[in-house]
Amino acid sequence: MSGALDLLTGLAMGLSLVALGTSRLPSLIRVAALQGVVLGTMPLVMEHDLRAMVVVVALATVVMKGVVIPVLLRRAMRTANIDRDMDPLIGFLPSLLLGAAGLIGAVLLARWLPLLPEHHESLLVAGSISTVFSGLLLLIGRSKAISQVCGYLILENGIYMFGLLLISSTPLLVEGGILLDLTVAVFVTGIIVDRIQRAFDSLDTRKLTVLRE
Amino acid sequence: MNPALEFVVRLVVWLLLAPLLPGIINRVKAWVAGRRGPPVLQLYYDLARLWRKGVVVSTLASPGFIAGPAVAWVAILGAALLLPLGPLGASPSFRGDVILLVYLLALARFCTAWAAMETGSAFEGMGAAREVSYAVLAEAAIITAVLTLSLQSGSVSLCAMLAPAAGPGAALLAVGLFTVLLAENCRVPFDDPNTHLELTMIHEVMVLDHSGPPLAAVLHGAAMKLLLFSVLLVQAVLPVGKLPAPAAAGVLAAGVLAVGVAIGLVESLLARYAFRRVPLLLTTGFLLCVFALLISWDGGGA
Q: What is the CB neighbour count within 10 angstroms for residue B295?
């Protein structure tokens, strides 16, 4: 049981590093979606008695993060007609190294934290901290709006992983609400991206700090 | 068996089998592309042809131009002999021989770069610079992989290090070592062994002015290095050393064949990476080895 969960967590951690290293927007979206699917299957692996609620949450996560959000992002990318290369503020190599350092730091931090004994052995806490860190790094280090959205998604994935520790006691409503929020946020960003593109001829968020008529 | 006789047999096996692997890779590439392809033994024919030819030496070049490939070839052969072959062990085996292996490979690279600079061509100097700058990253990865293996086994001798499987980090270590293998042997995502386009070459640039027997030594040395890395990869991942001798030989041969097929598939399915992306890929390989190291550290501590 915990072996499969650790494997999935390791996969998610690896995927957030891949996200830091990719230079193409479509592959970044694909990586974020894949990470969402991996996270979605986690509740199915970690619960001993599969309750209907857990299955519903897992299915909703997989559908939302794996299908709906990537489709929205891809459509936003197509309508805004932007070039697929991202120009990073923090280079790919430094961000990859920082992400790896963050991962090692997260493993050490998780060992040091006063956790419940059943959580001490699992990689989940370390995975969650390192994924949040990678998402944050992506959010800070990329200049285009869509790649920042992907960073936000990865950050949210990390928070979701932390929430998995409490999955048996979290109400369905909370999980559903988070997913809905996320989808609406991405939906709205899709529209905003189009507007930014029209107003500024670029998706570079650095230009948004300049006032224009 | 008599140790001297065994040593000679090993030497002959390494020398004779090495040019087979590039032939297999080319065969796989031809099969994927739907071509008939060169025969598997093509490199043997090439080596025989080059051996009969004369050498053209630039008036600028010092004797180092000929000595470089020769020393590199001997260094690679020495490194290959240090590598144990499953339960048979290595013929010269001592404590810390893994460090000698890493340094012999570095010596071979230095001599190839030196011979390239001897020609006085700016073009070859460029190739040498590229080769050496990528080697910095590749060597960091291979030293991390060696550190992982030695931490797992608590030993610094290749025979003891390679005997147990790499444990939970085996998959990470395998992918990391495979990346290093591709980079060190100038295979496709890093360099294209077939290209002769000036601006994209790395390794091929350095050997452009060599001809005749020195070029044969360079080609044969490259084939031996490829075989060496494949054998190292297979033994680092599979517990070959614990099997009885005939089974171990079979597993080793099958493993090396699988590595050859994997290289052929990578070369057929991937495009060469742009130069600025190469350090990123090599760093990924390095990080995979670092994570394997962390896992083995964790396992050892717990």
A: 21
